[in-house]
Every structure is written in structure tokens, then in C-alpha cells.
Design goal:
This protein is α+β, with helices and mostly antiparallel strands. It has one domain. About 45% of the residues lie in helices and about 15% in strands. It has a two-stranded antiparallel ribbon with strand order 1-2. The chain has a two-stranded antiparallel sheet with strand order 3-4. The longest helix is centred in the C-terminal third of the chain and has 35 residues, at about 100-130. The two termini are about 25 Å apart. It is found in: Bacterial flagellum basal body. Its main location: other. Belongs to the flagella basal body rod proteins family.
């Protein structure tokens, strides 16, 4: 494994964490959503990562394998005056938990920052190695 593979590994992690942040932002934007275009309440989404082992091509790292929906039911609130209410007067809201999503956002943001720092450190080490040769 060469020193340059660090950039590929960290770059793949930065890309994956960026997608994770986008999914979290979408979830947070739909915390209070009642019904989508299909008439169903918004379902929280989660990113599933997959490691890419170091192979002959030298492409190690991580990638987004899938974006899955949380299957749990949304919270039901009794609001008979709401036009989206069912026959019993309940409105089904999204199943997004804003506290969990904020924790997920902080975790993704820190992972993103750490991988940027890894790339900056590797760049500085390579520059210092070049300066030794002068």
C-alpha cells in the first residue's frame, strides 16, 4: 500500500459521509411531515456503508451500499380537524426522531472532518518528504 492510497481511502470516506449528511438533512427536513405525494407519511432513511477491501486494483475504502427506510410506524396524533386525518380522527406523522438525527449528523460531521484531517496530514508528510530531498 502506497502513501497515495491514503487519499483514495479518505476520499471515499468523505464522499460516503457527505451522502450520510444529505440523508440526515432530508430526515430533519421531514420531521413534521404528515403525508407525502403518495399519501403516506415520510419514513426516516438510513445510510448503509460497505467496506471496500484493498485489492489488486488498489481501491480500498468505504462506499454507500444502500439507503434504507426505517420500517417503524409513524406516531399517530388525534387531530380530527386535520384534513389528513383518517376515519378515526388520527393523523400519522413521520417516524423521524429529531434527537437521533442530530446525533447522527454530529457523528457524520466529525467523521467527515477527521477524514479531511487525515488527507491534510498525509499531504504535509509528503511535502516534508520532498523537502528532505532538496
Amino acid at each position: 500500500m502506497s502513501m497515495f492510497s491514503i487519499f483514495g481511502i479518505s476520499g471515499s470516506a468523505v464522499s460516503a459521509q457527505s451522502q450520510r449528511l444529505n440523508v440526515v438533512a432530508s430526515n430533519l427536513a421531514n420531521v413534521d411531515a404528515v403525508a407525502g405525494p403518495d399519501g403516506q407519511a415520510y419514513k426516516a432513511r438510513q445510510v448503509v456503508f460497505q467496506t471496500v477491501p484493498y485489492g489488486s486494483a488498489g481501491d480500498a475504502g468505504v462506499r454507500v451500499d444502500a439507503v434504507t427506510e426505517n420500517p417503524t410506524a409513524g406516531r399517530r396524533v388525534h387531530e380530527p380537524a386535520n384534513p389528513a386525518a383518517d376515519a378515526e380522527g388520527y393523523v400519522t406523522h413521520s417516524n423521524v426522531n429529531p434527537v437521533e438525527e442530530m446525533v447522527n449528523m454530529i457523528s457524520a460531521s466529525r467523521s467527515y472532518q477527521n477524514n479531511i484531517e487525515v488527507m491534510n496530514t498525509a499531504k504535509n508528510l509528503l511535502l516534508k518528504t520532498l523537502q528532505i530531498g532538496q
